Amino acid sequence: MLGAAQQREALTGTPALIADLGDAVLHHQRCADGVPTLWVERQRLPQVLRQLRDRFPMLLDLFGIDERLREHKPEAAADFTVVYHLLGLERCEECRIKVAVNPPDAVPSVRDIWPNADWYEREAWDMYGLEFSGHPNLRRILMPPTWEGHPLRKDHPARATEMEPFSLDEHKQAREQEALRFRPEEWGMQRATEDTEYMFLNLGPNHPSVHGVFRIALQLDGEVIVDAVPDIGYHHRGAEKMGERQSWHSFIPYTDRIDYLGGVMNNLPYVMAVETLAGIEVPARAQVIRIMLAELFRISSHLVFYGTFAQDVGQMSPVFYMFADRERLFGIVEAITGGRMHPAWFRIGGVAQDLPTGWERLVREFIDGMPARLDHYQKMAMNNGILKRRTVGIGAYSQQEAVDWGITGPALRATGVDFDLRRDRPYGGYDQFDFEVPLGHRGDCYDRAAVRVEEMRQSLRIIRQCLDNMPAGPYKSDHRLATPPPKERTLLDIETLIHHFLNVSWGPVIPAGEASFAVEATKGINNYHLVSDGGCNSYRTRIRTPSFPALQQIPLISRGLMIPDLIAIIASIDFVMADVDR
Amino acid sequence: MAEPGLGTLGTIAFGIAIIAAAVGGAAVLTWFERRLLGIWQDRHGPNRLGPFGVLQVVADMLKLLTKHDWVPPFADRAVFVFAPTAIVVAMLLGFAVVPFGPDLYVLDLNIGLLFFLGMTSLAVYSVLLGGLASNNKYALLGGLRSAAQMVSYEVFMGLSLMGVVMLAGSFSLRDIVEAQRELWFCIPQFLGLLTFTVAGIAESHRLPFDLPEAEHELTAGFHTEYGGMKFAMFMLGEYLGLILISAMIVTLFFGGWLGPWLPPVVWFGLKVFALICFFILLRAAIPRPRYDQLMTLGWKVMLPLTLLNLMATGALALWWRA
Amino acid sequence: MNTALFYLACVIALSATGLALTRANAAHALIYLIVSLLAVAVLFFLMGAPFAAALEIVIYAGAIMVLFVFVIMMLNIGEEGVERERDWLRPRFWIVPGIMSTLLLVELLLALRDGAAFGAALTSGQAVAPKAVGLALFGPYVLAVEIASMLLLAGLVGAYHLGRRFLVRGGRH
């Protein structure tokens, strides 16, 4: 992985970058992933970011870190840090800007530079209590409005057993009830104008079309949407906090449940970030196995999308066909991993097991049969006139809007932005594969679906290449930090036995440092930023998911449309609430 | 008005039999539809209870009957309770004018066709009042959609049948069937058939036109707040509507009971059955248009088509007579 | 017996109309109005004008009143209306229209059973068939029909004009 890290640094040209920014840069932090990480002065942050925006047009992520208990603190760090992860699409380069802050000092808000900073800043406030000056709406976003404390702070308990037993007295109940009351003004909505009284419709958190627990408060004039304000957090489980408690190894199953349709696709960025920190090289066979499984899950996730997309515009049948296909696919996943939706099968340094005997036949049967079925679905769903009338031109955004709002993956490519991490910065062996990156051009609901449909065909192509060229060799690295370590030699010498014992019982000790790893997941860029303090669990696990910014954009693309259009938009976004709330 | 084909007592008995058959048919249809959809969607559908799962109907009925009969405290209680009955009564009355065979009918009115149209237009109140009385925003939106949809589609629903009336020279459904001895009206009145079928699906608000209900948009639309028997009444009304519309299409366009070899009532039943299957297939295949698209379709496509059909039929009828 | 049915329908029509006028709640008033229209339809039927009866149901009860309900829904009467209504929710409130509709239903069924005999008894002894209505309308009364159609056309154009303004305002961005 060091090779890749150097490559990322060379692409970005760190010295030139520092020279550009001049004396605003306080410190250049070396990270294991080679991404230039620059500490800048808090007051000059907006100016720096504005300067960087031309080269890095996308704000990929914004998050806080509580540095108070960190032993290996970077030089410029204070009690808290706010990290701005930027992405340049043209040359696929990254940059991290960090700002040190001691509350109650406030960090200048960057909402006016990137509109998607709005929710990220709210999240940082919610999780750490960090103030952002100039942010008009610094409210809870993931936690309930009545929550006390800021959960990702190191002094906030991580489990219920560390807290007082829960009780609900009358006073508390009244307070909770009051917090549930809907007041349009608090959501930035007007009750009425001179000639119209608006109707407010609460769509969700339980609604057949919101795909989980997602709520949108709608301001309606008849059935026309005047404003839509999304409300998230109903699926928040504190995955990032769990990352700080679990060992590096035992966090893997939690990642499966972030995008619960993506299966092992979630393991990939996590284990690769850990491998970057630890400097583990993954053997070729493990790489190809990972790619094959990841692409199988991409198909699985897209099939669910495809079926529910057709269903949400009122077509009843496709979802049944697609779920049947997904069932076939799960058969393969089960044969290989033993699990179905959440196999948690990737390991630090490789995968859990070698492929079982006869896997080729299963995979071949599936990829041979699938293209004909996709043709059939094309005729049934995508070519249907009513479906086209419901989705073409609906919920469209421009390339500029997509980049501004941090939209990634198929939803970005539907606007015609030709950007796919698998091709533009091949990770984990993708450089060995032939595939095309399908593009749309209108950026509307229909194109978002069409891009995903074509991606399934490309994934089939990749899987066929895996099938035909599966390399021989070990399925796990023999690096000392690969977990669990190989068992065979432990019975021969005491050193290996001790090492195995420690790695299994406590988990591996990953060297101190920071690394992030982004992959082109099923729904867009999934990025894990890990901070190791040289212990056997992570100091900070930050999970950047593609669904989060996508929901933030809903108001922009749904104003002036009707409720059925909003449903089509929601269906076309392909989000998973667990992926949004984490 | 013609003399009833059966005696007074016979008519009453037949009427009761029709009610029982229609309600029973609607109940079995709930199971049949799920099985048929299952076959088309690569799955089984309810197949556990009794032969082919047909006892599922009984199980469902028991469940609905024993469910807590709940009226939301914020609802307009009186109207809320009354609303589901309207659709069932109206639809059952609609069956009165359907001729099941040359002598098998409850009523032979000289305004039979208009009677049917009147009953279907009264059935709308169920949906409207249900939506209004629930005092729920989703129900209200469903009711609003329903009102607009029904008014728009009734306009050409009636007009689309006038071609048939012209050819038969009567509003009596029996006369209309008799007039098809030479040629079923589905051929000369193809446009009428098309528009009436579309309007019929819209009237019985089934999937392509189920906007008042629109699960994915309005959760359950006008019957969001309904449960237990009151919900079952809405369902019953919907299935009765489906059977009634199929029966009307058969009567008006497919020669009613006419057919060789088999007894007339069997022919009638077979034709209705085939049409019901067709409607279920439509439900399985077609997505739901948006509300404004549906209105556009009604006013800008269907209404002109209907008027065109009416003009052409009138002109041809005059020309043929001259 | 026909006469009795006739007067029963009259009583229902009149009292339902009276109730429709006196109800505070718009939805309930409308339901009475619909009952009243149905009663009038039965009257027409008894008088030997089945065509007019059918039109009464299809057009007045089936379409125009639907629009009334539509308007009530659009206005979406506020919370105070609901609060006020809560006091009114007693059986006495819904049982009356219920009984009325039931009686009407029974009457209709009875009337339908005996068919043509009715019309003959109550009018000058002649039931008016749909064809006769058509011949009358497009024969001696053609001028009235044309005037009415002009009026309707004017209404249509007016409605279109009003609707267009709304469409422009509510249009897509």
UniProtKB/TrEMBL annotation, chain A:
Domain NADH-quinone oxidoreductase subunit D: residue ranges: 312-582
Domain NADH:ubiquinone oxidoreductase 30kDa subunit: 38-161
GO biological-process terms attached to the record: respiratory electron transport chain
Compartmental location: Cell inner membrane; Cell membrane
Enzyme class: translocase
Region (NADH dehydrogenase I subunit C): 1-173
PROSITE patterns given in the database record: COMPLEX1_30K, COMPLEX1_49K
GO cellular component terms attached to this protein's record: NADH dehydrogenase complex; plasma membrane
GO terms for MF: NAD binding; NADH dehydrogenase (quinone) (non-electrogenic) activity; NADH dehydrogenase (ubiquinone) activity; quinone binding
UniProt catalytic activity: a quinone + NADH + 5 H(+)(in) = a quinol + NAD(+) + 4 H(+)(out)
Highest rank taxon of the organism: Bacteria
Enzyme Commission numbers on file: 7.1.1.-
Region spans: NADH dehydrogenase I subunit D: 197-582
UniProt keyword annotations, A-Z: Cell inner membrane, Cell membrane, Membrane, Multifunctional enzyme, NAD, Oxidoreductase, Quinone, Translocase, Transport, Ubiquinone
Pfam families with a match to the protein in the record: Complex1_30kDa, Complex1_49kDa
Membrane association type: Peripheral membrane protein
Subunit field text: NDH-1 is composed of 13 different subunits. Subunits NuoB, CD, E, F, and G constitute the peripheral sector of the complex.
Protein family membership: In the N-terminal section; belongs to the complex I 30 kDa subunit family. In the C-terminal section; belongs to the complex I 49 kDa subunit family.
UniProt function note: NDH-1 shuttles electrons from NADH, via FMN and iron-sulfur (Fe-S) centers, to quinones in the respiratory chain. The immediate electron acceptor for the enzyme in this species is believed to be ubiquinone. Couples the redox reaction to proton translocation (for every two electrons transferred, four hydrogen ions are translocated across the cytoplasmic membrane), and thus conserves the redox energy in a proton gradient.
Protein name listed in UniProt: NADH-quinone oxidoreductase subunit C/D
Automatic annotation (TrEMBL), chain B:
UniProt membrane topology term: Multi-pass membrane protein
Subcellular location: Cell membrane; Membrane
Keyword NAD: yes
GO molecular function: NADH dehydrogenase activity; oxidoreductase activity, acting on NAD(P)H, quinone or similar compound as acceptor; quinone binding
Highest taxon of the lineage: Bacteria
GO biological process, one term: aerobic respiration
Reactions the enzyme catalyzes: a quinone + NADH + 5 H(+)(in) = a quinol + NAD(+) + 4 H(+)(out)
InterPro entries: NADH_UbQ_OxRdtase_su1/FPO (IPR001694), NADH_UbQ_OxRdtase_su1_CS (IPR018086)
Record key words, sorted: Cell membrane, Membrane, NAD, Oxidoreductase, Quinone, Translocase, Transmembrane, Transmembrane helix, Ubiquinone
Listed Pfam families: NADHdh
GO CC annotation: plasma membrane
Catalytic class of the enzyme: translocase
TM spans (from-to): 12-32, 78-99, 111-132, 153-171, 183-202, 239-259, 265-285, 297-320
Known EC number: 7.1.1.-
NCBIfam families according to UniProt: PRK06076.1-1 (NF004740), PRK06076.1-2 (NF004741)
HAMAP family hit by this protein: NDH1_NuoH (MF_01350)
Quaternary data: NDH-1 is composed of 14 different subunits. Subunits NuoA, H, J, K, L, M, N constitute the membrane sector of the complex.
Function in brief: NDH-1 shuttles electrons from NADH, via FMN and iron-sulfur (Fe-S) centers, to quinones in the respiratory chain. The immediate electron acceptor for the enzyme in this species is believed to be ubiquinone. Couples the redox reaction to proton translocation (for every two electrons transferred, four hydrogen ions are translocated across the cytoplasmic membrane), and thus conserves the redox energy in a proton gradient. This subunit may bind ubiquinone.
Family: Belongs to the complex I subunit 1 family.
Protein name: NADH-quinone oxidoreductase subunit H
From TrEMBL, chain C:
Presence of keyword Repeat: no
Function: NDH-1 shuttles electrons from NADH, via FMN and iron-sulfur (Fe-S) centers, to quinones in the respiratory chain. Couples the redox reaction to proton translocation (for every two electrons transferred, four hydrogen ions are translocated across the cytoplasmic membrane), and thus conserves the redox energy in a proton gradient.
Record's GO cellular component terms: plasma membrane
Signal peptide (from-to): none
Organism: Parahaliea mediterranea
GO MF, one example: quinone binding
InterPro entries associated with the record: NADH_UbQ/plastoQ_OxRdtase_su6, Nuo/plastoQ_OxRdtase_6_NuoJ
Name of the protein: NADH-quinone oxidoreductase subunit J
Gene3D superfamilies: NADH-ubiquinone/plastoquinone oxidoreductase chain 6, subunit NuoJ (1.20.120.1200)
